[in-house]
């Protein structure tokens, strides 16, 4: 289905569609870490990278990394500009979240290669194997390996079927068989990096509302995730008077409303309970336990931390008043990640040269760039999200025209890129 007006953009959309055929579910796109669909997506990305003129390798966590080698004139000690994003998805997700940031650079490298153009630095395109945390409730798993920040405790973490991450890696045939030493050795040398840039669908309505195809990200909001377990007492649904109940689910409901109310109290602050369970619940038994997830984010770490302190204290107060107990486990938080002004300005200059505004906006969603920001300067280019800006949803969409423009801007960025002086 070639769109002659926007051939590069259309080819990116076509590839996103082809990649989305590998799914863990029927009738939608779910691509969780190391499932057969995930391995197939990884193999296809590697194939496309090779066809575009890159040397490809797969690392110990399953990242697929294509290198478009520097111009011979750059010499043997050329440094690396890295770009990329993730190819795993949320459950029943969209086909561009993450994948656009791999497919677009592959298309751009393919065009440079076909035109015989080399860059004065190595360009590494990374398909990060895992960012969403669907299978092992992790955050930024694959980029944490590349950034040398892998948490060894994760190897013992189990998925919903009781398979540990170590077992899943060992069974995968990936280099290193899930050995910690191999995961640690997969870290990149920060001294070799010139920076990390990520192209990503905006996943919100800002660019759409402004009538703009592209935006430059200023910072990526920090986030904290929690697992909460509320415990009460099981008893008979028909005979226990309302005033005598210790209902874990009713307590959890009040706690969820507290998250909603407290996170409505500051502009960039957001709070979400996306998972809620009554383990072994029965329709005629008062819930003895209820578990839920909490995801809290804000544009400033202090605002997020203040909200968390209030919410955790509030959860304990609700539990005490209702005769319940509550255990709040905090998953490792991710701090707010500012983008580097010198890289943002280079995207801005390219946009302005094309007569486009260098519009800047913060990211409320998390990205691989957050983890890479621990070891190198980062920047992000956002591409307009259609359908009201909806994402983490199959309705997520972009146009071939916007993808084309983003690819052209990315080419200009790469060709004019100046390392920090
Ligand atoms: O949750 C996030 O912000 C990201 O999409 N994983
Ligand atoms: Mn996502
Ligand atoms: Mn993403």
TrEMBL record:
Residue positions binding Zn(2+) 1: 86, 97, 200
Sites where the protein binds allantoate: 225, 284, 297
Domain Peptidase M20 dimerisation as annotated: residue spans: 222-319
GO molecular function: hydrolase activity, acting on carbon-nitrogen (but not peptide) bonds, in linear amidines; metal ion binding; N-carbamoyl-L-amino-acid hydrolase activity
The record's free-text note on cofactor binding: Binds 2 Zn(2+) ions per subunit.
Subunit composition and interactions: Homodimer.
CDD domains found in the cross-reference section: M20_bAS
Source superkingdom: Bacteria
Family: Belongs to the peptidase M20 family.
Pfam family, one: M20_dimer
E.C. number: 3.5.1.87
Chain ranges passing through the membrane: none
Entries under InterPro entries matching the protein: Amidase_Cbmase, Bact_exopeptidase_dim_dom, Peptidase_M20, Peptidase_M20_dimer
Protein name listed in UniProt: N-carbamoyl-L-amino acid hydrolase
Binding site for Zn(2+) 2: 97, 132, 392
Keywords: Hydrolase, Manganese, Metal-binding, Zinc
Residues making up the signal peptide according to the UniProt record: none
Cofactor: Zn(2+); Mn(2+)
């Amino acid at each position: 289905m070639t769109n002659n007006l926007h051939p590069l953009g259309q080819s990116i959309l076509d590839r996103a569609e082809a990649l989305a055929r590998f799914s863990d579910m029927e009738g939608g796109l779910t691509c969780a870490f190391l499932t057969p669909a995930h391995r197939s997506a990884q193999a296809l990305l590697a194939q496309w990278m090779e066809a575009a003129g890159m040397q490809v390798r797969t690392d110990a966590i399953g990242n697929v990394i294509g290198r478009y080698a520097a111009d011979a004139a750059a010499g043997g000690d050329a440094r690396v500009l890295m770009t990329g994003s993730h190819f795993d998805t949320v459950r029943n997700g969209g086909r561009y979240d993450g994948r656009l940031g791999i497919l677009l650079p592959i298309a751009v490298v393919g065009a440079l290669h076909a035109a015989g153009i080399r860059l004065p630095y190595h360009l590494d395109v990374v398909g990060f194997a895992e960012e969403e945390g669907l299978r092992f409730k992790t955050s930024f798993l694959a980029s944490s390996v590349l950034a040398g920040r892998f948490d060894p405790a994760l190897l013992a973490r189990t998925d919903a079927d009781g398979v540990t991450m170590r077992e899943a890696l060992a069974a995968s045939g990936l280099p290193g068989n899930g050995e910690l030493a191999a995961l640690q050795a997969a870290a990149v040398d920060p001294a070799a990096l010139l920076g990390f840039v990520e192209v990503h669908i905006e996943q919100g309505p800002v660019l759409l509302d402004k009538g703009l195809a592209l935006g430059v990200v200023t910072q990526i909001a920090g986030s904290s995730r929690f697992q909460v377990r509320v415990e009460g007492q099981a008893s008979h649904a028909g005979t226990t008077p309302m005033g005598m109940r210790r209902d874990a689910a009713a307590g959890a409901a009040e706690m969820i409303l507290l998250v909603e109310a407290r996170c409505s109290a500051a502009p960039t602050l957001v709070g979400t309970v996306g998972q809620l369970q009554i383990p072994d619940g029965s329709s005629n038994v008062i819930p003895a336990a209820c578990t839920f997830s909490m995801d809290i984010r804000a544009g400033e770490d202090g605002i997020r931390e203040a909200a968390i302190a209030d919410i955790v204290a509030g959860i304990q107060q609700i539990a005490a008043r209702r005769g319940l107990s509550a255990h709040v486990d905090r998953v490792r938080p991710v701090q707010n990640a500012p983008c580097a002004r010198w890289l943002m300005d280079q995207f801005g200059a390219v946009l302005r040269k094309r007569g486009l505004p260098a519009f800047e906006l913060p990211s409320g969603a998390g990205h691989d760039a957050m983890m890479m920001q621990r070891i190198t300067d980062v920047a992000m280019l956002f591409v307009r999200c259609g359908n009201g800006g909806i994402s983490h949803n199959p309705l997520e969409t972009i146009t071939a025209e916007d993808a084309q423009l983003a690819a052209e801007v990315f080419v200009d960025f790469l060709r004019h890129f100046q390392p920090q002086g």
